[in-house]
Amino acid sequence: MNQILVVEDNRDMADLVAMHLRDMGAEVTVCNDGTAGLKQAMTGNFDLIILDIMLPGTDGLQICKQLRMESNYTPVLMLTAKSTELDRVLGLEIGADDYLTKPFSIRELIARVKAILRRVEAFTQQDDADGEQVLRIGDMSIDYARRTVTLAGEELGLTAKEFDLLWYFASQPGRVFSRMQLLDRVWGYGHEGYEHTVNSHINRLRAKIEQDPSNPRYILTVWGVGYKFTDQEKQVTS
């Protein structure tokens, strides 16, 4: 049974969302303010957090940011009454997995929830199958199970999405991906029009893993198409 945390200060909205999530078989915890929501998110074992941006106490963006800073990679679906592109991009940039702008239909919410949970299950199955799988490319080592990356023996500080993006690239060296494909595969469905989010993440990744980001060795630009990871020889150990 999936464990879902709903952090929403509108009690009627929270109860409605919780009711429909329970109808799909989930166990739901509801918090109506940001401070309590952050505490639950940090101490609970949830499969998904549905998080309103505008909250009393700690707002949703700060909750999401704090979770990612604490290496909590629980998927986050953000709810916002704001419709500006900036708010959506901020949510994606700090590590949210998806967002919905109010008012939204319950059918759309459930579709997004199911899509996120499917991705979580797919990653979990890969994790179970791979066990202690580590990719080694040149002097870079990517440990999937521990979600760590070392370069020349030094551990790098990557965000959750930076790690997901790097792993997706590195596990398929030489394959070219468009920005839209990367959005679909790494961020998930529902982000059409936000290809620049991919650009900014790749720029930050390059700044962390490339000796010369302007002349990258690992993440290469394929002009007019998208990006690919270097197809130099890769070693996989388990």
Features:
238 residues; 13 strands; 5-stranded antiparallel β-sheet; Rossmann fold; elongated; alpha/beta; Arc Repressor Mutant, subunit A; 5-stranded parallel β-sheet; 2 domains; 22% strand
In the predicted model, the low-confidence regions spanning at least 5 consecutive residues are none
Major sheet characteristics = 5 strands, parallel
CATH architecture classification of the largest domain: 3-Layer(aba) Sandwich
Number of strands: 13
Query: What Rg do the Cα atoms give?
Result: 18 Å
Q: What fraction of the residues are assigned to beta strands by DSSP?
A: 15-25%
> Would you state the CATH class of the largest domain?
Alpha Beta
Q: SSE order, as H and E?
A: EHEHEHEHEHEEEEHEHHEEE
SSE blueprint:
Elements: E1 3-7, H1 11-23, E2 27-31, H2 34-43, E3 48-52, H3 60-69, E4 76-80, H4 85-93, E5 98-101, H5 106-130, E6 134-137, E7 140-143, E8 148-151, E9 154-155, H6 160-170, E10 176-177, H7 179-187, H8 195-209, E11 219-222, E12 226-229, E13 234-237
Outline the structure in words.
The structure is a single chain. This protein is α/β, with parallel strands linked by helices. The protein folds into two domains: 3-127, Rossmann fold (3-Layer(aba) Sandwich); 131-237, Orthogonal Bundle (Arc Repressor Mutant, subunit A), CATH 1.10.10. It is 43% helix and 22% strand. The chain has eight helices and 13 strands. Strands 2-1-3-4-5 form a five-stranded parallel sheet, sandwiched between helices. A five-stranded antiparallel sheet has the order 9-8-7-6-13, covered by helices on one side. A three-stranded antiparallel sheet has the order 10-12-11. α7 crosses α8 (195-209). The chain is elongated. The protein starts with a strand and ends with a strand. The model has no long low-confidence stretch (mean pLDDT 84).
